[in-house]
Amino acid sequence: MEDYVYANGKKLRKGYTTGTCATAASLAATHMILQQELLEKVEVKTASGVDLVLHVEDAQFSDKWARAAIRKDGGDDADATHGLLIYSEVTLREDCNQIQIEGGTGVGRVTKPGLALEIGMAAINKTPRQQIEKQVREILGVDLGADILISVPKGEETARLTYNSRLGIEGGISILGTTGIVNPMSEDSWKAAITVELTMLFKNGSTSVILVPGNYGEDFACTILGFSKHKIVNMSNFIGHVLKEAQRIGFERILMIGHIGKFVKVASGTFSTHSKDADARIETLIANVALLGAPLELLREIDSCLTTDAACQLIEQYGFQEVYQVLVDKIQSKSMRLLRNRNPQVTIDVILFGSANTYLASSQPMEKLIEEWL
Q1: What tens digit of pLDDT does each residue of 132-159 get?
Q2: Residue 149: beta bridge partners?
Q3: Cα–chain center distance at 187
Q4: CA-to-CA distance for 213 and 262, rounded, in angstroms?
Q5: Which residues of the chain form beta strands (DSSP E)?
Q6: What is the pTM of this model?
Q7: How far apart are CA 279 and CA 290, in angstroms?
């Protein structure tokens, strides 16, 4: 498709979702059964009403069965499923006029409660299911029925690059898409996935959650501190958003664990920590070290640093490690302030670490935090 959006001054091509691919493949297979001829292209309407004409691959048919594949196109989005072939096998039913949709190889299965789908169901979300049934029904009419099997041959290996395992979806990717269109650089789906993960954890009985801003934080929490991965949610750069979501969902205790390179931004009151939004890491370090009475020589040396790790080496060389506790206290207070005057009341603790998984400071003694959160 040749449709574009503009993000950060760049022209980016839109794509279409796995749900749109599954719908298009199902339409193509159904057409081939009814028309008894191969189809090279198929017209499909996305859930948001956009009309697409997509190329059909690996098409086969017989008198009551057909298979077709549509190649997923994520546009200019960083999409793990881009290029995958999404297959649909359609078999006409002789016993009734019902349309049954199931997942095959490479489509994940729900293994935990908390999602919109029941445990054991194929991870084909509500909107794609509705679109497949609606558009296939328009072709079949009211008298015919069909069994539809959606599969993704490389889905299981691709799923390792997605959030599926965290959400309790095993064995493959999900067939997704509320609009049917992929908007490049969109953060909405990422935030939505984090909300789903938080909701699942809460529905499974937990009123406390460990939040980390990335893989470094998760590795430190699990490898160094020994915390269970199942208690941890990766909030990426959306720290303020995720804190508010955790409170809205009902969590009462939050433990934030992060590298100083990310968390020093929160100490300055910055809650969207991607570099495209803000980057005052070095300035925040300089200001707080200066308030501790650091000499001008040290401040100038920190100002020339390109990374917080380099700045930390200077801070330790000059003996101003107490700044780490100052930063932790500010991260905690500013995070608590963000959630003030809302219910439920949330207790927030913070653990800060540096390069080579070096512990720097925490809002409570580490021994107490480990005892409370293990």
Answers
A1: 999 999 999 999 999 999 999 999 999 9
A2: 89, 102
A3: 9
A4: 7
A5: 4-7, 10-13, 15-16, 41-45, 51-55, 57-61, 65-71, 85-93, 99-103, 109-110, 145-151, 169-170, 181-182, 208-212, 232-234, 253-259, 347-354, 358-362
A6: 0.69
A7: 19
> How far is the C-alpha of 105 from the C-alpha of 86, rounded, in Å?
10
Does residue 237 contact residue 273 with C-beta atoms inside 8 Å?
yes
Q: What does 209-267 look like in DSSP terms, one character per residue? A: EEEESSHHHHHIIIIIS---GGGEEE-TT-HHHHHHHHHHHT--EEEEEEEHHHHHHHH
Radius of gyration of the chain (CA): 25
Distance in angstroms (rounded) separating the CA atoms of residues 87 and 90: 10
Question: What pLDDT digit, counting tens, does each position of 108-136 carry?
Answer: 999 987 677 899 999 999 999 999 999 99
**Which segments in the chain show pLDDT lower than 50?**
none
Tokens of 144: 């015919």
Long-range CB contact pairs, 227-234, < 8 A, 24+: 227/373, 227/374, 230/201, 231/201, 231/206, 231/373, 233/194, 233/197, 233/198, 233/201, 233/209, 234/166, 234/194
Query: HSE on the CB side for 293, CA within 13 Å?
Result: 2
Q: How far is CA 147 from CA 80, 133, 150, in A?
A: 28, 10, 10
**Cα torsion at 131, 133, 135, 136 (round to 10°)?**
150
Joined tokens for residue 234: 């990766």
Q: Match 């539809």 to its residue by tokens.
A: 148
200-to-173, 204, 215, 248 alpha-carbon distances in Å: 18, 6, 20, 14
Q: Which two tokens stand for residue 33?
A: 């059964």
Amino acid identity at 155: G
Name the token pair of 329: 């206290």
The dihedral formed by the CA atoms of 173, 178, 179 and 185, expressed in degrees to the nearest 10: -60
Alpha carbon dihedral 272, 273, 274, 280, in 10-degree steps, equals 120
Give CA torsion, residues 364, 367, 373, 374, to 10 deg: 170
The length of the chain in residues reads 374
Q: Which two tokens stand for residue 190?
A: 């990422």
